[in-house]
Amino acid sequence: MWRGLYTAASGMITETKRTDTIANNLANVSTNGFKRDEAISAEFEPMLIRRINDTKADQSDVTSFKGFHLGLQAPVVGTLGLGSYIDEIAVDQSQGVFETTGNPLDLAIAGNGYFAVQTPQGVRYTRDGNFYRGNNGVLQTVQGLPVLDTQGRTIQIPANAAYISVGEQGQILADGQAVGQLQFVQFGNDRRALLKQGNNLWYPQQGAQPAPATGSIQQGMLEKSNSSVVQEMVELINNHRMYEANSKAVTTQDTMLDKSVNDVGRVS
Length: 268
Fold this sequence. Notes:
Elements: H1 2-27, E1 37-43, E2 47-50, E3 76-80, E4 84-91, E5 98-100, E6 107-110, E7 114-119, E8 122-126, E9 132-133, E10 139-140, E11 164-166, E12 171-174, E13 177-181, E14 184-186, E15 194-198, E16 201-204, E17 211-212, E18 216-219, E19 221-223, H2 229-264
Antiparallel strand pairs: 1-4, 2-3, 5-19, 6-18, 7-8, 7-14, 9-10, 11-12, 12-13, 14-17, 15-16
Helix pairs in contact: 1-2
């Protein structure tokens, strides 16, 4: 019974962490370039169960039939699961839908790639291309972080520029004159090369090196979150039912333990 309590409790802890992941996905449904998370659960190593009091089988064993018996090994009942845990929070890198804005400084990424921005913690990466020209002429994110070029420098947008064009690989032209080249990179095919920092920013794992992106930049558009309200709500309902089932299992185990201690174990 103790084992049953621990197994059900581990399931409740797993579903609690999964709820946190789903809640974060729901909170970022409207966040540009957001990539939803998926809580991947795994099972603790199952335990092999044998029949109680069977040290070895013999010819009179109940498993013997017409001269057949299991030999010297105790009959195996099967395996018993010992609960679950969250093994990994994986990121769904699927493409989000595009929304046309008509703003020349709104940039969406089709395929692989990230924009580089400067933060107090160093260079970070994002897929949120909702940029604007700051008061000092520097191209910035909505959080006020400078967008970097291929040399790691800020990009100046002329105040009197009437027409701004951004190419598929990040070339920026103002009235036909080149003013910069966006640092548009990716980190190979390793999905763990970049980790989430928060505020829609990513940072590279130690040793991960940026390379030119294979995707393309679409001007006048924004990539929306790949998190769907309907999908996340369905996941949340299923998650609640799983948590409830584990909770009832804990209650049942507790009731059985109470009976065994106070009723079955009573000395008359």
